[in-house]
Amino acid sequence: MKTRKAFTLLEAILAMSISAIVMFGCASMLYDMIAVGERLERSWSLKSHADGVERFLQSAVSSSLIMHPTRIQEVLATFPSKTMCLSQPPEMNSASDYYLTFGVNGSHPLFVSPTGFSPAKICWLFHNEDEGLSIIWRHANAEYENSDAGIYKTKISPFVKEIIYIYDDENGWEEETEIDSTDSTKLPYYIKLVFVYGDEKAERVISLSGLVDSQFAR
């Protein structure tokens, strides 16, 4: 009768220990790979989102044309190009807050009212730390006869935690978190958007310099 070879208790314990170590190492590596993948995906998504917002706003600003400037109330300053201004949106609670104002002419899926797409709109770039970046807008012409134009709000990005206005100062570039309302000749050259999502952060700068006359440059 042949004697069958079997694992000893020590060999079995050793094999189980080695298997546990290998499985732990594999699980740890898999976790690290998933974590890295999530960070890369989140970073890429925020970057892509920020790029899209930048392209949209840069296009809107560079092609801005306000068809009916007399319908904008509480104007602080107008860019020399006459295509943009700093003003207050309708029904604004604060009398000291001014916003970048531009015109959008042509149908766009972001601007839809109960009456459909509006070809000519007056827009205010509005930021709230809790809500993010939005555009307050109204039709250049009222939707209905003998009525005021409706006022709408379209969210652009919930991840914009800060909007910074960059001015050309005597001592160089100056950054402000709000429109400077103390000097009607002081116009921002750029706006900087700060995007935050989790631990990720991205910044995008929108140029307004093409809309600012060179006489303001120092």
Protein architecture, described:
The chain is an alpha+beta fold and 218 residues long. Helix content is 25%, strand content 34%. It has one helix and twelve strands, in the order αββββββββββββ. The chain has one helix spanning 9-62; strands at residues 75-78, 84-87, 99-105, 112-113, 116-117, 120-128, 132-139, 151-157, 160-169, 172-176, 190-197, 200-207. Strands 1-2-3-6-7-8 form a six-stranded antiparallel β-sheet, covered by helices on one side. Strands 10-9-11-12 form a four-stranded antiparallel β-sheet, with helices on one face. A two-stranded antiparallel sheet has the order 4-5. Strand 11 (190-197) and strand 12 (200-207) form a beta hairpin. The longest helix is centred in the N-terminal third of the chain and has 54 residues, at 9-62. It starts with 8 loop residues before the first helix and ends in an 11-residue tail after the last strand.
- Order of secondary-structure elements: HEEEEEEEEEEEE
Principal-axis shape: elongated
Number of helices: 1
What strand line-up does the widest sheet have?
Answer: 1-2-3-6-7-8
SS class: alpha+beta
Taking Cα atoms only, what radius of gyration do you get, to the nearest Å?
28 Å
Average pLDDT value? 78
Number of strands: 12
* Unreliable residue stretches: 212-218
Distance between the termini: 104 Å
Query: Could you estimate the helical fraction of the residues in percent?
Result: 10-25%
The major sheet is characterized as: 6 strands, antiparallel
% residues in beta strands: 25-35%
